[in-house]
């Protein structure tokens, strides 16, 4: 073996020490600082005494000028230091004195140097370690007489099982490590570096500035400084670097061998590790665990940090880690990667990554090795200074934002927070942090992150107590309780800081990696992928996985069930915070600052981006659109929304939530149950927001997209907004239905889903963006205190339609026209009358729902609120014939024929205030309408006769007269025709000409049918039954019957009927005076509708005959005169 790897003449030293023990019969002191047994005693007990002759010879050869009883304590040069520094009971033991004084004086140096230069001591080592040398072939082959044999035994001391030999070597190695000049080749290799770094003297006779242990410590610090690229650092030669690391490695077994650390931490060892035995690196680990205790001395903490930094550079500097993981490193070939730079495989980070990769892939790693890995991963997370890349690249960020937070991982979490919240971190620092998180892998065991562990301990004990301690699912459990009552603020911050980095590398979630590694290889082409040799960026792998998570079988390859479940879990977590989605944050950084800087509450940033979708940059718009499209398919990704809606899901949607398979049924269920009592405000806001976002693009509504995608591409190309697509498709459906097309253009499945979308849109005015934009100012002016939802704002606008601006009025009229054609779209009507529809109209066609309700309006079982709503819709219908589809169809020919003058003055999208219906009423009185139209007008007349509000022209013209003359009747709200009767009785008191004309028209209409005069019909109901039972109603026939009965003295009518009839005759007579016929046709109509038409027609006939006779007579006279003139 080469000199550079050996402790050259250690055998001589060990042999001499053995000789001293056995010739003097002395024992080394056994104190708390040195818990090693006496080697001489051990040799006596285990293998018997050595030959006295050999020992004497060795002692004589070693010290020619002193006898075998010579003691260091007797030397004058040592006496003062010995008394001052060493306990008295150790004075008789030269070995104990050496360990106590070490490098204090030149005498000790010469003594130790003499011990290590006599080859005769090697023979003693051969005697003590005879069987061990035979077992270790490398040592057996070493050349004898040069100290190489003992150096080889030191190298292989881990494998020495022979008790005598093991204790012998362990005890005596401390002497060599007390002075770097005694270590084989060390001084030759590091001579220049020692002088350059001013670490001490290399000359034997000179007094060193530092102790010999501190010289090595100085070199180690120089090595660390170079690794951290500190300002003004010195570059140590490669040979010296190897020598330094070799010394650190050889001293890893027992902390006594690291002289600088041993003296720096003597008191701390007593304080924290009193009961920890030396050997196998146990004291090192104990001190590491107490490094950040307040009572730990600064010198010891500094020495411990230096040793930890050496371990980071070479894992073999940790005895326990190298021993525990030796077999696993060989098994998984972690130290034979030829593709890596020379020496990188020795780094702690590479060991951790390689073995973590094996664990994540489900391979077996010994529990002892995993335990050691856990300790060192925790060590790296606790102290950022152990990672040279962090120190080098994050120096500015630490000075600016994180100074004074060194302990317990606080600096690392501070850097994570800076990266997450401020986004101003240097790329190299960001990369260094990401690399450290990958090396420590806290996602596999939260306990590695001490700051997180301490912050979240209470949450874990309450919310996650059902999960085994250290299980990777603990982090997922914490994420599930993020923003809940069980979460505490400090835990929330630490958790999000860590998740920010875990979310950027899918490998850092061990469950996701284990479940999806085969899918990643199969679908995303990551064959041969591992943690240290990446063919694909980690972010790209997860993007690939989630793109395939929601594919149908027709769309191609899909993820396995287990992998898909994990991808969904990650998506649910990312939805909690936009910063947990790396792609979204990267593409939308500018837009977040521009539009959403004030949105700081959980979930608000994504909602803000969705609200400003049209304003976003193209990259950001694409990623937000894709995420929204994904949410429409699986709304459970919106974890905050699902959490807010838990009560209503449990009550109304639990079956859908439990069995949802990529269909969007859960959101549809939430929308349908949006106004249930279990629905809270947060859930309503969330569901409504999602509905509003869906309006921006039809792709955001999964069920609508799947049902109508082909129809949209074929019939409505280039249309993106959902509301426009719905209007486009519904218009085609309506036109095809009206034209009775056999094969409709819109497919059946699309028509069904289109119906669902139309019903949802009717619930909230904001779901109709065009109407909402047109009426925004009117909503502010007239409906400011009205809540959105339940179509309340739309209803408010209907109530105030006379005060709306023209654009809003037109849009509202269009909406009402649609609702009247399809009452199911009238959300308020369907909501208020829901029970009545079930009672009276369960078998009716949905298109005729309002007609059915009107027919049952006066039933005793009718709910008052529903009755009131029906009346409101009747009033609306009577304002314009276009709002009454049945009337419009029945009077299709009559309206242009008789009411063209009204139509020519009308404007599109504005009510005609009942003018067309009033026109048709007059023609009804003249009996000139078609039968179908006449039937519809009769119904309108009967309804408006009972309730004056259903006659818009009467209400408009008599708005002042009714309160003045009929206030009591209005207050009664009996809706039995009393208000109209009041106006008829007070006809002479009416001052407004328009009102008077409307009342006269009512009187004229009542002549045509007694049913349109409810007061008269009620009074004469019994007489009609007795006197006019055989006469069919309509065309004034029953009215004529009653008038004839009134004139017939043989018939006795009911007094009330007789009185009412006489009043009507007087009213008609007055009407004839004040409202003469406006034309011949009007006159003819009045005559034909008059009860005295027979008398009038007789008189007219007599006049005609008379005129005829006069014409004959006058004709003969004029003829005679004309003849006489001709004769002349």
Automatic annotation (TrEMBL):
Keywords: Glycoprotein, Membrane, Repeat, Sialic acid, Signal, Transmembrane, Transmembrane helix. One of its GO terms (cellular component) is Golgi membrane. Residues 1-25 form the signal peptide. Cys-rich GLG repeats lie at residues 235-295, 364-423, 424-486, 558-617, 678-737, 745-805, 861-928, 990-1050. It is found in: Golgi outpost; Membrane. Its main location: Golgi. One of its GO terms (molecular function) is fibroblast growth factor binding. It is a single-pass type I membrane protein. It comes from the Eukaryota. The chain crosses the membrane at residues 1095-1118. InterPro entries: Cys-rich_GLG1_repeat (IPR001893), Cys-rich_GLG1_repeat_euk (IPR017873), GLG1 (IPR039728). This is Golgi apparatus protein 1. It comes from Electrophorus electricus. The gene is glg1a.
């Amino acid at each position: 073996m080469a000199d550079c790897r050996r402790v050259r003449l250690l055998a001589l030293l060990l042999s001499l020490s053995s000789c001293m023990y056995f010739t003097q019969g002395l024992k080394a002191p056994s104190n708390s600082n040195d818990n090693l047994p006496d080697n001489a005693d051990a040799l006596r007990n285990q293998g018997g005494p050595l030959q006295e002759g050999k020992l004497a010879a060795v002692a004589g050869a070693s010290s020619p000028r002193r006898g075998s009883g010579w003691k260091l304590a007797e030397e004058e040069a040592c006496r003062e230091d010995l008394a001052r520094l060493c306990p008295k009971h150790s004075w008789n033991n030269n070995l104990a004195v050496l360990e106590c004084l070490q490098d204090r004086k030149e005498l000790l140096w010469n003594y130790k140097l003499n011990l290590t230069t006599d080859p005769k001591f090697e023979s003693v080592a051969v005697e003590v370690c005879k069987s061990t040398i035979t077992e270790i072939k490398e040592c057996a082959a070493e050349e004898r007489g040069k100290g190489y044999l003992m150096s080889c035994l030191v190298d292989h001391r881990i494998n020495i099982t022979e008790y005598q030999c093991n204790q012998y070597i362990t005890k005596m190695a401390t002497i060599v490590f007390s002075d770097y000049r005694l270590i084989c080749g060390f001084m030759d290799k590091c001579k220049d570096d020692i002088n350059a770094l001013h670490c001490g003297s290399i000359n034997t006779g000179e007094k060193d500035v530092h102790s010999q242990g501190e010289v090595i410590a100085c070199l180690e610090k120089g090595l660390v400084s170079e690794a951290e690229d500190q300002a003004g650092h010195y570059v140590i030669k490669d040979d010296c670097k190897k020598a330094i690391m070799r010394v650190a490695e050889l001293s890893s077994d027992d902390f006594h061998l690291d002289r600088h650390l041993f003296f720096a931490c003597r008191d701390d060892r007593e304080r924290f590790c009193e009961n920890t035995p030396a050997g196998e690196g146990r004291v090192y680990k104990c001190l590491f665990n107490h490094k950040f205790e307040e009572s730990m001395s600064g010198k010891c903490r500094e020495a411990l940090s230096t040793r930890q930094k050496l371990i980071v550079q070479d894992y073999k500097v940790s005895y326990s880690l190298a021993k525990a993981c030796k077999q696993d490193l060989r098994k998984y070939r972690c130290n034979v990667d030829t593709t890596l730079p020379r020496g990188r495989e020795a780094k702690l980070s590479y060991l951790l990554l390689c073995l973590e990769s094996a664990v994540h892939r489900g391979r077996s790693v010994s529990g002892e090795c995993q335990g050691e890995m856990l300790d060192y991963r925790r060590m790296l997370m606790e102290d950022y200074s152990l990672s040279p890349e962090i120190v080098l690249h994050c120096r500015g960020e630490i000075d600016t934002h994180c100074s004074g937070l060194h302990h317990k991982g606080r600096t690392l979490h501070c850097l994570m927070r800076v990266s997450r919240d401020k986004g101003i971190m240097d790329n190299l620092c960001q990369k260094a942090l990401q690399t450290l998180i990958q090396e420590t892998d806290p996602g596999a065991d939260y306990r590695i992150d001490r700051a997180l562990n301490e912050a979240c301990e209470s949450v874990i004990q309450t919310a996650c107590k059902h999960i085994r301690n250290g299980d990777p699912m603990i982090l997922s459990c914490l994420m599930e309780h993020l923003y809940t009552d069980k979460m505490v603020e400090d835990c929330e911050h630490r958790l999000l800081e860590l998740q920010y980095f875990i979310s950027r590398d899918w490998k850092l979630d061990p469950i996701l990696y284990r479940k999806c590694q085969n899918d990643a290889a199969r679908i995303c082409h990551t064959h041969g992928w591992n943690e240290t040799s990446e063919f694909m960026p980690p972010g790209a792998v997860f993007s690939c996985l989630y793109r395939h998570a929601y594919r149908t079988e027709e769309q191609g390859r899909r993820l396995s069930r287990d992998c898909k479940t994990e991808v969904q879990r990650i998506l649910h977590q990312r939805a909690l915070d936009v910063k947990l989605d790396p792609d979204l944050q990267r593409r939308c950084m500018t837009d977040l600052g521009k539009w959403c800087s004030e949105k700081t509450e959980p979930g608000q940033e994504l909602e803000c981006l969705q609200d400003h979708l049209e304003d976003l940059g193209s990259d950001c718009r694409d990623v937000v659109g894709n995420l929204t499209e994904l949410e429409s398919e699986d709304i459970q990704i919106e974890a905050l929304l699902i959490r807010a809606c838990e009560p209503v899901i449990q009550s109304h949607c639990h079956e859908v939530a439990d069995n949802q398979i990529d269909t969007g049924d859960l959101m549809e269920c939430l929308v349908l149950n949006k106004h249930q009592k279990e629905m809270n405000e947060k859930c309503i806001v969330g569901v409504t927001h999602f509905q509003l976002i869906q309006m921006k693009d039809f792709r955001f509504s999964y069920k609508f997209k799947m049902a109508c995608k082909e129809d949209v591409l074929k019939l409505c190309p280039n249309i993106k907004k959902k509301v426009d697509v719905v209007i486009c498709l519904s218009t085609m459906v309506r036109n095809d239905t009206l034209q009775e097309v056999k094969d409709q253009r819109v497919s059946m499945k699309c028509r069904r889903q289109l119906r669902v979308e139309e019903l949802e849109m009717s619930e909230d005015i904001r779901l109709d963006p065009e109407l909402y934009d047109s009426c925004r100012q009117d909503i502010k002016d007239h409906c400011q205190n009205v809540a959105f939802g339940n179509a309340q704002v739309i209803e408010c606008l209907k109530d105030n339609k006379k005060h709306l601006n023209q654009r809003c009025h037109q849009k509202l009229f269009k909406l009402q026209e649609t609702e009247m054609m399809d009452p199911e779209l009238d959300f308020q009507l369907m909501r208020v009358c829901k029970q009545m529809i079930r009672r009276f109209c369960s078998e009716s066609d949905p298109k005729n729902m309002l007609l059915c309700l009107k027919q049952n309006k006066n039933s005793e079982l009718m709910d008052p609120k529903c009755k009131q709503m029906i009346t409101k819709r009747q009033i609306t219908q009577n304002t314009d014939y276009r709002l009454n589809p049945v009337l419009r169809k029945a009077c299709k020919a009559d309206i242009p024929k008789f009411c063209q003058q009204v139509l020519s003055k009308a404007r599109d999208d504005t009510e005609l205030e009942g003018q067309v219906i009033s026109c048709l009423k007059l023609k009804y009185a003249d009996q000139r309408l078609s039968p179908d139209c006449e039937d519809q007008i009769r119904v309108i007349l009967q309804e408006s006769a009972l309730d004056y509000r259903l006659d818009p022209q009467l209400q408009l013209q008599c708005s002042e007269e009714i309160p003045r003359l009929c206030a009591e009747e209005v207050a009664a709200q009996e809706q039995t025709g009393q208000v109209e009767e009041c106006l008829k009785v007070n006809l002479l008191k009416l001052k407004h000409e328009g009102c008077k004309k409307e009342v006269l028209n009512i009187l004229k209409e009542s002549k045509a049918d007694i049913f349109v005069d409810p007061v008269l019909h009620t009074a004469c109901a019994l007489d009609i039954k007795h006197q006019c039972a055989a006469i069919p109603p309509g065309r004034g026939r029953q009215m004529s019957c009653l008038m004839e009965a009134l004139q017939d003295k043989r018939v006795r009518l009911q007094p009330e009927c007789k009185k009412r009839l006489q009043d009507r005759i007087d009213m008609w007579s007055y009407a004839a005076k004040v409202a003469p016929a406006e034309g011949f046709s009007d006159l003819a109509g009045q005559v034909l509708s008059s009860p005295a038409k027979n008398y009038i027609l007789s008189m007219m006939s007599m006049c005609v005959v008379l005129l005829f006779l006069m014409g004959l007579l006058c004709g003969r006279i004029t003829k005679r005169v004309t003849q006489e003139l001709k004769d002349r």
